[in-house]
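Working notes for the structural subgroup meeting. M.R. asked for a predicted model of this chain before we commit to crystallization trials. I am recording the input and output together here so anyone reviewing the notebook later can reproduce the run.

Input as submitted:
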Amino acid sequence: MLYIVNASGYYFKVLPDPQGQPSIDCAQLNNCSVFENPEQMYATVCARQNLDLDEVEGFEIGVRLGADRRYETSESRGLWFPVELAEGQTIEQYIASFTL
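Returned structure, recorded in token form:
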């Protein structure tokens, strides 16, 4: 798994593809920090946003490549939804530019 924080402070857990390989290209993530474990990601989010661990732990946005080769995201309740990419947009661009 990969753990990512974008420039807007949103943080993601990216699951491997169905074959166990990375489902995104980290080199394509502009203005993002990439971590190998959730503890590093949580520490970064807490420091940048002046939050406590219990305010961020478990609230990351999940990203996975579904069986139909389309990306999906999840939220804290564990429900998965299709990612609506703009024409020509990559999942890496989506993550890097994500805001609410």
